[in-house]
C-alpha cells in the first residue's frame, strides 16, 4: 500500500472514531511512556475502565508522580502504579522486566508507547544511536521479556493478551538503500556515527517505525498458533504532542515554523491520537484472528507499506529479526529461553 499526501490530508480531516470502552476490572494494563502525550491520555482512558491494575511506566519519577495524581483526580481511579524505566539504558529495561515478573506477574495489555525524536546524532550508554535504541531495540527487548507474563495472563483469561507497539504512518515513506538492504547487520550499519551523520538522521525516526512494523510481523509469524497473545502495531496519526518539542525549542527556525503551521492545519488532539492506542489494546476482541499481526490506524486494520509486503521487505524483516535477537540475547540471558519456549524456529 502507498499513502499519498492527499490520503494523509483526508485522514487527518476525517472524524476520529470514539474511544473503545470495555470492562478491564479483571485485567492488568501496562503503558510504557505514560506520563505525557498520547500515552498519558491513553492511561486516562484505561483508568476510566477500572482495570485491576494500571501500571504507568515512565523515565522521570517526578513527572510520573504528577501524571498519576492528575489521573486519580480526573477519573477517580486509585489503581495507578508508577514504575520507572529508561529505554536508553538496557540495564534499566532488564531490571524493570525482572521486577515486573517478581512483583506483578500476569499482564493482559502491554502498550509500548515510549519513543524519542532526536534531530542530532546521540549515542546511548549502551553504544547505540539513541532513536534506534529507544524506539526499536529497547522496545523489542521489553516486549520479548514480558512475553511469559502476557502468555500466562492469556492462558488464565477467556481471551488472548495484547501487545501493542506504537508505530507510525511514516513507515510508508521508507525505502532503505541497497547498502542497508544487502547488509547482514543493518542495525549496526545504521547506528554507526558515520552513517547517521552523513546519511541517516533525516529518516532515522521513519526507519525506527518501519522496524517496529517488522518486529510485530516477525513475532506474529513465529508465535505458535495456540499461544494466547496477539501483537499489533498502531499509528496514532498526526496529533499534537510534546514528542516534537525538540523542534519547537528551535526559536525562529524554519523547521519550527513549518511544524507549527502543519500542526495548526492538520493535527488531531493528543486525546484523539490516544484513542488509536486504546483501540489497539481492546478493540476487535470478537475477531482476534483478524487483528493478530495487524497494522492499525483510525480504528481499522490497514495494509502496510508496499516495501514491507515485497520480497525485499520480507528478506530485510528476517535479517532485522535475526540481528535483533542476537543483539538482545547479549543484553539478557532470558531472551534465548523465551524464544525457545514461546516461538517457532
CATH class: Alpha Beta
Strand content: 5-15%
The helix-strand sequence is HEHEHEHEHHEHHHHEHHHHEEHHH
Helical run tally: 17
Count of domain modules: 1
The profile of the biggest β sheet is: 8 strands, mixed
**Low-pLDDT ranges:** none
Rg, please?
A: 19 Å
Identify the CATH homologous superfamily. NAD(P)-binding Rossmann-like Domain
Q: How many strands in all?
A: 8
Assembly category: single chain
Helix content: 40-55%
Protein structure class: alpha/beta
- CATH architecture descriptor text: 3-Layer(aba) Sandwich
Mean pLDDT: 91
Q: What is the terminal separation in angstroms?
A: 29 Å
- Based on Cα principal axes, name the global outline: globular
Widest beta sheet: strand line-up: 3-2-1-4-5-6-7-8
The CATH topology corresponds to Rossmann fold
Organism: Rhizopogon vinicolor AM-OR11-026
GO molecular function, one term: oxidoreductase activity
Pfam families: adh_short
Keywords: Oxidoreductase
Amino acid at each position: 500500500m502507498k499513502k499519498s499526501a492527499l490520503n494523509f490530508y483526508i485522514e487527518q480531516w476525517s472524524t476520529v472514531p470514539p474511544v473503545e470502552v470495555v470492562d478491564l476490572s479483571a485485567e492488568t494494563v501496562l503503558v510504557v511512556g505514560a506520563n505525557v502525550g498520547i500515552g498519558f491520555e491513553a492511561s486516562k482512558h484505561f483508568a476510566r475502565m477500572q482495570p485491576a491494575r494500571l501500571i504507568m511506566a515512565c523515565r522521570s519519577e517526578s513527572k510520573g508522580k504528577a501524571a498519576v495524581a492528575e489521573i486519580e483526580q480526573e477519573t477517580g481511579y486509585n489503581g495507578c502504579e508508577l514504575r520507572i524505566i529508561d529505554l536508553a539504558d538496557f540495564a534499566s529495561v532488564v531490571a524493570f522486566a525482572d521486577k515486573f515478573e517478581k512483583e506483578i506477574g500476569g499482564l493482559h495489555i502491554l502498550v509500548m508507547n515510549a519513543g524519542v525524536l532526536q534531530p542530532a546524532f546521540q549515542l546511548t550508554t549502551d553504544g547505540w544511536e539513541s532513536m534506534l535504541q529507544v524506539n526499536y531495540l529497547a522496545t523489542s527487548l521489553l516486549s520479548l521479556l514480558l512475553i511469559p507474563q502476557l502468555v500466562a495472563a492469556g492462558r488464565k483469561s477467556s481471551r488472548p493478551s495484547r501487545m501493542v507497539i506504537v508505530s507510525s504512518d511514516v513507515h510508508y515513506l521508507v525505502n532503505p538503500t541497497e547498502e542497508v538492504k544487502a547488509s547482514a547487520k543493518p542495525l549496526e550499519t545504521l547506528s554507526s556515527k558515520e552513517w547517521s551523520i552523513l546519511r541517516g538522521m533525516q529518516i532515522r525516526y521513519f526507519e525506527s517505525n518501519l522496524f517496529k512494523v517488522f518486529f510485530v510481523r516477525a513475532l506474529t509469524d513465529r508465535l505458535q498458533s495456540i499461544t494466547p497473545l496477539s501483537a499489533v502495531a498502531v499509528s496514532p496519526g498526526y496529533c499534537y504532542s510534546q514528542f516534537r518539542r525538540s523542534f519547537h525549542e528551535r526559536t525562529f527556525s524554519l523547521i519550527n515554523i513549518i511544524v507549527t503551521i502543519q500542526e495548526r492545519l492538520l493535527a488531531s488532539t493528543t486525546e484523539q491520537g490516544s484513542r488509536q492506542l486504546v483501540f489497539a489494546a481492546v478493540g476487535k476482541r470478537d475477531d482476534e484472528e483478524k487483528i493478530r499481526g495487524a497494522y492499525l490506524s483510525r480504528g481499522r486494520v490497514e495494509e502496510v507499506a508496499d516495501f514491507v509486503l515485497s520480497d525485499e521487505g520480507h528478506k530485510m524483516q528476517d535479517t532485522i529479526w535475526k540481528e535483533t535477537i542476537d543483539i538482545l540475547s547479549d543484553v539478557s540471558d532470558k531472551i534465548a529461553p523465551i524464544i525457545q519456549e514461546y516461538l517457532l524456529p
